Amino acid sequence: MNSDSPSDKTTARQQMVAFIRKELRETLRDRRTIITLLAMPILLYPLLGMCFRFMAVNANQTASAPLRLTLNSETEALWLQQALKTGGTILEQFQDSTEAPDLEFEYLIPQDNDGEHSLENSISNTQADLGIKIQPLGEEGANPYSKVSIQLIQRSGSPASETAASYVASRLNALNIARIEHWSLENNSTLDIPIRQSKSFVAPVETPNAILQLFPLVLLMMTVTGGVYPAIDLTAGERERDTMETLMALPVPKFRILIAKYVAVITVTLLTGLMNLTAMTITAYVLQIEGTLFGAEGLTFLLLLKLFAVLAAFAVFFSAALLMVTSSARSFKEAQAYLIPLLLVAIAPGFVIMLPGAELNQMTAFVPMVNMLLLARDLFDGQARWLPSVIAFLTTLLYSFSLLAAAARMFGTDAVSTGSRGQWAELFIRPDHIVDKPTFGNSTFILAMLFPFYFVCSGLLQRVSEVSMSQRLLASAGLTALLFVVLPIAFACWQRLKLKSTFRINRPNGLVWPGVILLGLSTWPWIFEVVVLLEAMGLQTLDASKIENVKSLLETWQQIPLWVIIVALGVIPGLCEEFFFRGFLFSGWRSSAGRVATICGTALAFGLFHVVLAGGIAPERVVPSTMMGLLLGWVSVRTNSILAPALLHVIHNSTLLTLARFREELAGWNIGTVEQSHLPITWLAASATGIIIGIIWVGSTTRSITEISSD
């Protein structure tokens, strides 16, 4: 019978329904799942609602509270009231009608002007916002034009004290100018005030409410926590109960079993999201804070539907991420240890959206988790736009499918279904036999260690100021070789790994070298154009101070021999980075992932490393470095070796360093200047031609990718 016959399709659907019902039944009857699903939102949202209400009420009270002025006597207070009123009338002649309303003041008179009740202590103890000493006052105490000496006592760092002092000073200055003009008229002379000030007020740009910035993170994190326990129980839990092997032995595709577990996790996550929305709605209406949280329209049914759609997309994404992580765990305890970093990573974007200027646009819509948090915030604030919202929604679904595909590769494999419990000591136990390549876990472990090691060591190196720049460059090159070559080789020898296959040291076809050299010479102009494009899109962090630092560094390099710069910053980093990223890391990840996934993963790690290389101050380097990493990875796959990408990398670095060294000579051609916006079109055309010819050359002189099975 044909495998695609209707009866077979019906059987497959019945099997899928049976598996889904089985997983849902086992999950929903678990007491801990029900507690997470029902009890947590019921307990948490009333507490959060009361906290938000307290914060909102406290903010309103602070904004509407009168400013407190303290003076030594009631006579001085009466004089000041009259002076402020007269000065305000004078200022109205110069101010626009859009001026903010006058401030309200409360006048305080200490019982004792000495000791703890002095004006200074009243300001210091926050009993008053501004202290005012007025001397001397005679019989004309109620006359604002009487001659006096005034001292303002202000509390440092207090916005309220600063506001009060500015308000009082502006009206007293107006009185002074009016008094001088009055004196000139009495003496039949004309006085032209050289500087006349006027002030107008404009409405500030609306910024997201601080509560609204925090609320999406709380809502989304409370939703995804509902799927944490089911994801662990349905994967690592079944391994501990010795039921995973039984499932794997069934004559059913393991992907079908994974989909059933995925549906169960999504169902519990969505039910948790629905409970969170319900608890949030009830809390908002009971505490009467829906207007504060959701604007004038409040919490409408349409807004609830939009929020549930966002929660659904986030649940689909996070459920796949949870299954991908827990599918690689061998025990319940190990899965919990894996999920702690995942939850910390999930919390980090919540603080990103609180940064000034963070908005959902065509760029941030592609950033996982950040896009959903920004979309939820915009929905709360009523400012969501259709195009970025649709992009964020679709990309989140795409990322979910990618994570699910990665989970399918790990789910139910012999390597995770049986064997050890994943002790930390296994990373350091020496195998009894020789191994061809490192595992995915080993290579990832070394990568995770390299990032903080390089960050700390390079930072310490920068603090050494007694050595010359040449010595510092050579020390940096030595550090790169130590971390990216010596450390992986030492680990490979301890783990009895074959060095040739681990680091992919193979001799490529000799005809490939002209194409590799051409690519090395041709890539830098378009990498530079990517940087310019990022700057035009507002993603560049090179401000004026950083540009000056770059200029200063380039001037310092003029005193260093060119060969030292090329060797320290071009040759050694190029060789060492390829030795690790397209060698050790590539072979380890290739053992568990496809070619495309390995190329993309190592390229991204390569790009993130260059942010660490810059001390974390140049996040825009991720994009051009990752693009370069993609090209290097492709060349590595085509040649099945690290030698060709190493040469390409060295030529690329050396070309850029040479251009930087001779930037003054190239400035006459408008090339190589720091402030330059674009390279000449002829250079870009020549670069594009070189890249195309180089790719065709490398592709035609190497074996087909489909033939490279040993890679």
Describe, in plain words, how this protein is organized in 3D:
Residues 562-654 form the CAAX prenyl protease 2/Lysostaphin resistance protein A-like domain. It comes from Rubinisphaera italica. InterPro entries: Rce1/LyrA-like_dom. Keywords: Membrane, Transmembrane, Transmembrane helix. GO terms for molecular function: ABC-type transporter activity; endopeptidase activity. The protein is mainly α and 711 residues long. The protein has three domains: 20-59 and 208-349, no CATH class; 63-202, D-Maltodextrin-Binding Protein, domain 2 (3-Layer(aba) Sandwich); 440-708, no CATH class. Helices cover 66% and strands 3% of the residues. The protein has a four-stranded mixed β-sheet with strand order 2-1-3-4. The protein is globular, with a radius of gyration of 34 Å. The protein starts with 5 loop residues before the first helix and ends in an 11-residue tail after the last helix. Residues 96-100, 414-424 and 704-711 have low confidence and may be disordered.
Q: Please give the oligomerization state of what you see.
A: single chain
Mean pLDDT comes to 77
* Structural class computed from helices and strand pairing: mainly alpha
The number of helices is 28
Helix content: 55-70%
Tally of domains? 3
Give, in spatial order, the strands making up the sheet with the most strands.
2-1-3-4
Q: What is the strand content? A: under 5%
Q: Based on CA inertia axes, which overall geometry fits?
A: globular
Q: State Rg.
A: 34 Å
User: Major beta sheet, specifics?
Assistant: 4 strands, mixed
**Distance from first to last alpha carbon:** 39 Å
Point out poorly predicted stretches.
96-100, 414-424, 704-711
> How many β strands by DSSP?
4
